[in-house]
Amino acid sequence: MRFSIFLIFCFLSLTVFSQTFSETDIKKLAEQVNRQIKGVDIGNGIRAKGCLSLGRTLIYQYEVPDYWEAPYNIKEEIISNLKTAGAAKTYYLHNIDVDFYYYMGNSLVKKVSVKSNEFSTFSFNLGEYVSIKDHPKSKEVNLKLKVPVGWEVKEGDRPNIVKKFTNEGNTYLILIKDNVTFFSRKQIREALQEDNFVEEFVQETSSFLKNPQVIDQSVVTVDTYPSVQFKVKGKMERSGLTFPVIMKCWVVFYEDKIIFLQAMGIDNPEFRALEQLYSLITNSVIFPEQYN
């Protein structure tokens, strides 16, 4: 089966819309794709009838010849082709379902429905542990955590960044700074209960962003250490260019150190899709020395 023509049209069309797709946007997309593919010979006697939308579902329609039989794995083949073309990731990120209708004359002979989550190109599986014990930037912190499958482990490129995990422009990093003095877990828990402590700490930590907006913040525990979790978005300037970013951060108060477990990316649906993975990485954190 050949879907290359409509895939190219569809993928190019998706790029003209905003980062967040409303049902109106999807309808406009369907109208544009319909004009582009209607009557196009796909090959093997298959011809595109057009494209329409229903809510958040795109519906592609085809005319097939009398001798046509749907492959037994047609749905898997469609998903694979869409992933290869790069369109599947866009459908997934923008929550767009896709149906494929195949007609012989006026009779519908095959319908294939693919939900947006089935287009996911992300792996949420974690691999082996990576330890920062004895790392020259670890400041004697002994910590290990799991790396997502398929992500690359790199050395930090700034003084306090120990390690970072990267994949297609997405980054999760470990950053360690010295605290002013030693604090026990009990002392930190008491401090975190004080009025405005968390709010002021988050604001100070986010001050490197322009116009920062705190989306959420809370007190959590990472392994057994009191921590602050927060998400903030704003703008960042690099080499004269300003662009929107979003950051999810866990701040672990570890004795006389502060550990930042930080995920940052462009403020778009891809970052929101990966938030679950970032939480899984953080939940895998272990401080081995406390179990000795």
Instruction: Sum up the overall morphology in one term.
Output: elongated
Uncertain regions: pLDDT < 50 for 5+ in a row? 1-18
Helicity, as a percent range: 25-40%
Strand content: 35-45%
Give the strand tally. Answer: 14
Spell out the helices and strands N to C: HHEEEHHEEEEEEEHHEEEEH
What is the C-alpha radius of gyration, as a whole number of Å? Answer: 24 Å
- DSSP summary: helix tally: 7
Strand order of the largest sheet: 8-9-10-14-13-12-11
Mean pLDDT: 86
Global structural class: alpha+beta
| Assembly classification | single chain
Structure description:
The strands form 3 sheets. Strands 8-9-10-14-13-12-11 form a 7-stranded antiparallel beta sheet, with helices on both faces. The chain has a 5-stranded mixed beta sheet with strand order 1-2-3-4-5. It has helices at 4-14, 23-37, 74-85, 87-93, 185-192, 197-205, 269-283, and strands at 41-43, 46-54, 57-63, 97-104, 107-114, 126-131, 144-148, 152-155, 161-167, 170-178, 210-222, 225-238, 241-254, 257-266. Helices cover 26% and strands 40% of the residues. A hairpin with a 2-residue loop joins strand 2 (46-54) and strand 3 (57-63).
